[in-house]
Structure formats: C-alpha cells, structure tokens
Amino acid sequence: MHTEPVPIAKPADAAPDDVPADIRARVQTLRAELLAHNRAYYEEDAPTVEDSVYDGLFLELQQLEARWPALLTPDSPTQRVGSAPSAGFGTVTHRVPMRSLSNAFSEADVLAFDRRLKSLLGVTEDFAFSATPKLDGLAATLRYEHGRLVQGATRGDGVTGENITANLRTVRGVPAQLSGPAPEVLEVRGEVLMLKEDFLALNRAQEARGDKLFANPRNAAAGSLRQLDARVTASRPLTFYAYGIGEVSDPDQVPASQHGMLEWLGTLGFLPPPGAERVQGVSALLDYYRHTGSVRATLPYAIDGVVYQLDDRHLQAQAGFVARAPRFALAHKYAAEEAVTTLQDIFVQVGRTGVLTPVARLEPVFVGGVNVSNATLHNEDEVRRKQLLIGDRVIVRRAGDVIPEVVGVVLDQRPADAREFRMPSQCPVCGSAVQRLPSEANWRCVGGLFCSAQRKRALWHFAHRRAMDIDGLGDVLVEQLVDGNLVHEPADLYRLDAATLQALPRMGEKSAANLLAAIDGSRHPSLERFLFALGIRAVGEEAARVLARAFGDMEGFLTADWATLLEEKAATLKENERRRSRGERPLPVPLDGIGPEIIDSVSAFLGEAHNRDSIAHLRAVGVEERLHVDGDTFPVMAGDRFLLATDGLTNMVEDADLCALLGGNPDDAARQMVERALDAGGTDNVTAIVIACDPS
C-alpha cells in the first residue's frame, strides 16, 4: 500500500509544544498499532494484518515524523527492527545490528531510490546492482569461529536476538564446519524458510494427526525454528539461504562485490539466494522485477518481492544506514496474488473487546500458496462498500501473502438468489445486546466479561507477558478454563489450585505447580502493567504508562473525575494557544499524550459496574500494584552537583537555566529554582534539593 503524504501545514522545525494534539494522538495510535502487529508477526508467528496494511500504517507514521521531527523518538517503530526476543530463549547481542529494508511499491519509488543514491554518492553513471528474490521466511544469523558454527540467533529487535543455536544446527544449508578458507570470525546472515512442497506435506501430516494447520510457509518456518525443543525443529523441513554477512574479523578476505560475496558464501557450504543476478542500471532492476513476478507462482519458495543492493560493497559503506535500514538497499514489493471463488456465507466473530467482525466463509480456493476458506470483512460498512451479497462470486487476495482479503464482487456473475447480510442485533456468543457508537465503525457486544468470547480473549490478554506476565497461561489453557466453567473473571485465576489444574488434559503435577507459581508471582505488577492488563479499549502500553505516571496508584485511577479532566485538558490546550500567540511559556497539559478517545474509553470502562467489580475482586485476592523503582550506580567526584526535584519544576524552568543555577551558590540554587518555577506560573507543588559534593 502506497499512501499519499499526510496533508499537514505546520513547518518541519516545529517545537514539541507546537504539535497539534490530534497529530500527537494519531502518532501514538500508529505506534501502538505497529508495535502490536510487530509482536504478533515476530514474537507470536501469527500476523494479524496483511503486509499492505502494515506498510500503509508504517508509511503514514514515517511521514508524520518527517513533518514533525519533535515527535520522533528512539523507541518509535520507524527506528526499530522486529520485536523483542522471547523469554523462552537465551539472548544474543548482535555485534553488528540486523537491520530491516526500506520498501518500494511502484516503479517511481525505485527510480527515486536510484536518484537518491547517485546524489548521495556523487555519481552520474549507472550503478551495478545485486538483485535477489525477497524470500519470505525468518531472518537468522550464524557465527563461525575458526570455521566452526558456535552460535545462531534470530534477528529479534535488530540489536538483541534469540539464541537458537541448537535449532539452526538442524536446518538444511547450515554447515557445522565451513568448507573453505574463511576469516577467523565470520557472521553469516540469511533467511530460514520452508519450501512450498515441504509446507504442503507438513500440513498434510498435521491434519492427519488432528493438529492445527499452519497458515502459510512463513508461519510454518518461524514456528518450527523457534521451538524450545530442537528435536521438533529437526523434524521440520527447513532451508537456510545466505544473503549477507555481519561481523567479520578480516574484511579483506570477503569479495568486494555483493554478488561476488554471495558466490563466495556458496564455496563455504552455504546456499546463496536462488535467482540472484548482477544487473546494470535501474532499468535492468525493473526488468528483473517484472521477470521474477511473471514466474513467481511457479517458484518452489514463497516470495513477496525482490531485493536490490548496490553491488560494490565499498559504495555500500559510503552510503551508510538510516536508523533501521541501509541506504544502499531496497525491497520492491509485489501486489498480492488473487483468485475468484464463491462467498458461501458471512458469519460473525466476537473479539476480546467485544467487536463483532463479519467473516466471509468461502468455497476453498488455492491462492498465494495456500488454501483459503475464510477471510475477514472487517466491519458492516466494509461489506456495504464492497456491495457483497451472500452467494456472490468474489475476488480473493492474500495481501502480503499473509491475511486473506475479499477485494470485491464479480457483478456479472451474481446469482439470482444472492442475499443481503445483516449484522445481528444480539451477540452470537452470549446473547447480549450489541451497539454501535456514532464515532465507531464497529458493532460491540455489551456483555464484557460475561461474554465467553470476550472472556477468553480478555484472560489471554491479562496473562500476556507484557501485561501480568503469567507464563504458561496460553490460549489453549484459557479455553479449557473458561469452557470448564473454572474461570469467569481474572480474579478466579488466583483461586485455582493444583487439584483443579491437574484434572485438565495434558496438565501434570509439574506443569500445574509451574503455572500456580507464575500466577502467584504476578500479584504485584507495576501500575502500568496492571492497567494494560485490564484490556481497556484504546489503552495500549504507552497509554497505560502515561496513566500510571499521572495517577500513581490504582486508587487515584479509580477515583478520577474523567469528565473534569477532559474539560481541564481542553481548557489548558486553549490557554496554551493564547500563550503561544503572545510568546509566553505554555502550561503543562493534563494527561499529555492521552486523547479524548482514550479518556472516553476509560470513562466508559469504569462506568460499567462489573468492570469495577472485576478490579475490586482482583485486589481482594491480593493483586496490588507495586511501585517499581529504577536504580543505578555511578562514581561521585569532588565538585559534583545533584538536583532532586518534584514534577512541579519539570517544564517550568529551562534546562540551561537549571544548569546555570547549579553552578552557583548551592545554598541559594534550590530557592531560586523554586522561585523561577512559581514565576513561570507553576501548576504543581515545587520542591528542589541541591546536593554539592565537597571538594575537600
């Protein structure tokens, strides 16, 4: 998806306080969505959106950050790669970061890439490029010392990956010993994937055993490689293709060209990317893209594009990197594959937050390398927009080769008995009423935790490692607990005992003990984790952090006057507009970063008695937030000065002024700081303590 630039009138050098609140809120929403999608894709091997949707969200965030640089932070998804490593594996710190690639979605994007490189490197003649298919698997890195494999890891977040050495030793194309002369230390990077035929055979075996089928070869490869038991990985048909290097002790031993380096890796026992070519000029790149796309369906492996890299590795070094991607390389994505089939029915699923999602039940059709029988229709408006009737012949796409999507209807093949879909007036799971707010596109069940569909999702979310971090409480066990009428709300988890758990299928004494220990260990989360765990609509991790900082404890959160807070926030924003027009210092904004939608959502959540009851029941079984204090140690030198202050000083006195005051008489510095904050219109209690280390 290639979206148009976001129309924003403000200048790129705007100060943080000049960024409109709606822009801040949109950036926060985009970051929360992208981080959630990253976790689903990289950590859970279960993508939740198609690549085209993700790419569109990512591009919008990039554009907003480019136009409003004050919003750019190091933890933004645009500055990071992948997601955090799983706690189930040991970690590996990459000595050379494993970056991602920038994307192109059109020929114009590729031409712009070529122009930027020529401008950056001061070159007018055509470049030589190395072009390869963009293999759709899991990125991995292999470290060799004295020719022997000593370590293998996933990409993780680009800086820290998972140690999966034992698993990688079982993969085809990963030599235990290099077959030719190589540097003393050589880190080889590549893609672990599952060939299409191997994928189909694996799913046939899964089906024969009554096990869950994999959605696509990429998910199958990722799920197989990230097994805690290496024997499971060894039983799966995986292949490693090498496409680059990381750390190398003697760079002079590596060929000076990208294509030559790929051939050299082949002499060491690796499988270079199939279909790799060295081409001259951007026109040849586009020819390569078109040709590879024309044979894409016949290839034995899944691809979602092609990769272009400067062939001259010295020029690569000169071009350098941006935060998450090299300037000298580009991924040129293909449009999704399509097929035509029959829309047999539309059924409704109920999500964790009560959202009712219409889902197309399709006559099974082979598209994008897999059989597709279901596809999300997102919401009722989307069904109407696409003019879908049950019985229609429809076009199905696997956008990004991940999530099936109904593109539209073949109107000239519409049958006479095609019928209209209507959203049910009651929840199909619990029978509660459904409602649609004027500001939303979705219908929602109002049953909350009373709805078993929401209960399962809510409990799974509650137990997630980024929430209450209850290790071992996965979706299968949650289903068993809910379906067995053992758990109705989160507090019931803390009432479980060993006998109850051991009565469940595949739950032995040790597993039960481990789970009970994990549940007990979650009784004292940080407030931000506690708030995130509640599953309040629109309250992601970042919003939970802001709320936790604002209220300090659960009591403050529960007793807050949200209507008044919203009014105060609006009044402060209006006052700050007046102050900026006069060149005056703006006031701190209440709940800065929390928009009206989140406040309305929290207010609605707390307005339901059963939600407050759920929190009260959790506190009754001993679940209480605990203040988590960050600590550090550092050497103290004679002459050092330290400032300890409350929030009342924050943003009221410039950092430069604080430093100047610290350099003066310490007996007067704290008093002067307080006076400066009050003179600036201080809106909170102001306390300042200055500590001076005696040079004697």
What does this structure look like?
With 696 residues, this protein is an alpha+beta fold. It has six domains: 16-79, Helix Hairpins (Orthogonal Bundle), CATH 1.10.287; 101-333, DNA ligase/mRNA capping enzyme (D-amino Acid Aminotransferase, Chain A, domain 1, 2-Layer Sandwich); 337-425, Beta Barrel (OB fold (Dihydrolipoamide Acetyltransferase, E2P)), CATH 2.40.50.140; 447-520, DNA polymerase, domain 1, CATH 1.10.150; 527-620, 5' to 3' exonuclease, C-terminal subdomain (DNA polymerase, domain 1, Orthogonal Bundle); 641-692, no CATH class. It is built from 23 helices and 20 strands. The strands form five sheets. Strands 12, 13, 14, 15, 16, 17 and 18 form a seven-stranded antiparallel β-sheet that branches. Strands 2-11-10-3-9 form a five-stranded mixed β-sheet. A hairpin with a 2-residue loop joins β13 (355-367) and β14 (370-376). α1 runs antiparallel to α2 (51-67) and α16 (527-533) packs across α17 (541-551). The longest helix has 23 residues, at 21-43. It is globular, with a radius of gyration of 28 Å.
- Separation of the first and last Cα atoms: 66 Å
According to CATH, what is the topology of the largest domain?
D-amino Acid Aminotransferase, Chain A, domain 1
* Structure summary, number of beta strands: 20
Average pLDDT rating = 86
Using only C-alpha atoms, the radius of gyration works out to 28 Å
General form: globular
Shape-level CATH architecture of the largest domain: 2-Layer Sandwich
Number of domains: 6
State the secondary-structure class: alpha+beta
CATH class of the largest domain: Alpha Beta
pLDDT below 50 for ≥5 consecutive residues: which ranges?
1-15
